[in-house]
């Protein structure tokens, strides 16, 4: 028992910077997933000791206000809001967060301006940014970002090209001024522990929580996660470099196969002169319009976009959020106990 208590104390010391920054019992953030990270899941994560994050996505300021108020009715614990920096009403969305005393704002989907960072901090909230490379991470810290998330290509949804394993080695030894949270492909507590020991302050997980009891995702969506292997979560394919496709990781399905055919057909129209370059690009981009909602809310996992990280292979059952977090903590503690036993066992 004392070994377990010692291991838990070690874990608590390792992620204390993350817990202190977030105001949570464990330094585990919920990844912001459109249609999924809403009041029910966000409040469940925060109530279980983690840190829930509302995915604002394309919400209007009025719609975001409604979601914040509804979340606050379900939890007294801190939670954050993820805002897309390219949103045309970004300033108004920040105002809504500040007016409702949201404690943390996550700026995603591009490099935020210094003005936006200052506005959030002057308004009394903490500000978190994403760093896909060391140079950008250092720049963001100089601009006033108070914490960073480094997300590897193993993650679900929109992803960069570099794995978390590489990003962690590139960034964690060199950014010590602010807490750095790791994300992408995380599904076990012992894996989280390994990054804490490299200097991370905590971890962000999405896929495990998307398949939780409290997630409003359709039963078909969750069952697709349970059936999937890691190799089934693939990034969208770009057929021609003239027409860029933003890489998005999700489960391979009929929709993703049709997307390849759609690109090929659109490319042929462009080459035949039936479409100009701009119209062809728009036709490719519009293919997935509404596809995430189709999968998450309507349960059409054949034609919809089933965004999932490679950790989807570790989703074996639909469990409550509190149980997921408890299991992650237990796995980290057990890993610490095993390591101590190995170190102190005589040769």
UniProtKB/TrEMBL annotation:
The keyword Flavoprotein applies. Keywords: Dioxygenase, Flavoprotein, FMN, Oxidoreductase. It comes from the Bacteria. GO terms for molecular function: dioxygenase activity; nitronate monooxygenase activity. Transmembrane segments: none annotated. Signal peptide: none annotated. PANTHER family: 2-NITROPROPANE DIOXYGENASE. This is 2-nitropropane dioxygenase. It comes from Gluconobacter wancherniae NBRC 103581.
